[in-house]
Amino acid sequence: MIGVLIAISCGLVTFGAVTAWMGWVSGIFPGLVTTAAVYWWISRKVARAMEQGTKQIQAFVQRGQLAQAIDLLQQMQQRYSRWQPFVRGSLAGEIGTLYYMKKDFTRAQPHLAKAFIKHWFAKTMLGVLHYRAKEYAKMDKVFTRATWFSPKQGLLWNTWAYCLWRLGKTQQAIDVLRRAKHKLGERDPRVNANLLNLQNGKQMKMHGYSNQWYALQLELPPMPRMGRAREGRGQRASIRRF
């Protein structure tokens, strides 16, 4: 990464200058301080530039202009990933997430696979794609790794259990939720509720996660009440006509 190399180079120059004047022992601390200071300065510059880009991306997403948001993310990836570690993976996760939202799963998958491992929502989507493709061993591998790095994310655990439950592997789903309960305790009541549901032979209920859950497109969101009322009136009118 360019930022790391520049910081190390500046640190070495400082170390060399101080060593020539006061000896190598005296040069260690100034060299380390210079390295840290330069890297911090570069990181701040990159972060500020990315903040501006993120605001534009959010505006595109709010207007439903996902293609424009993806284009800007890819430009940012090309521009900034050389300067700082983990930027490429973080932006890959965002690109994959937007392709997924567009239901362009073929393009989404490689980006989600390259996403930074701590981008747990991108990894959740990747696990769901393997589930859709009936690649169940890959699905379990993705969820296992993602829950290792993000053990406090209830939706991640619940989605894994949901996929297993839909496959008829109820006991495995229960085992996953038991592990989730051990990691989360009482932090996410939706984990405990679904664990009790499965243990009592009932269905899992995921609507408590609201938009995040429906973004995974495993279930359709509930129809708004006005929409249901209008649909009901339309159906009754159709019945009366015939």
Describe, in plain words, how this protein is organized in 3D.
- The chain has 242 residues and is an all-alpha fold.
- Helices cover 78% and strands 0% of the residues.
- The chain contains twelve helices and no strands.
- The longest helix is centred in the N-terminal third of the chain and has 39 residues, at 24-62.
- The protein is globular.
- Mean pLDDT is 80; it is low at 226-242.
Strand content: under 5%
User: How far apart, in Å, are the first and last alpha carbons?
Assistant: 70 Å
Structural class: mainly alpha
Q: What does the largest sheet look like? A: none
Helix content: over 70%
Order of helices and strands: HHHHHHHHHHHH
What's the total number of strands? 0
Kindly report the average pLDDT value. Answer: 80
Shape field: globular
**How many H/I helices?**
12
Calculate Rg over CA atoms.
24 Å
Uncertain ranges:
226-242
Provide a short characterization of the protein structure.
The chain has 242 residues and is an all-alpha fold.
Name the features:
242 residues; mainly alpha; 0% strand; globular
Write the layout of secondary structure elements.
Blueprint: H1 2-22, H2 24-62, H3 66-80, H4 87-101, H5 105-114, H6 120-132, H7 136-149, H8 154-166, H9 170-184, H10 189-199, H11 210-215, H12 225-241
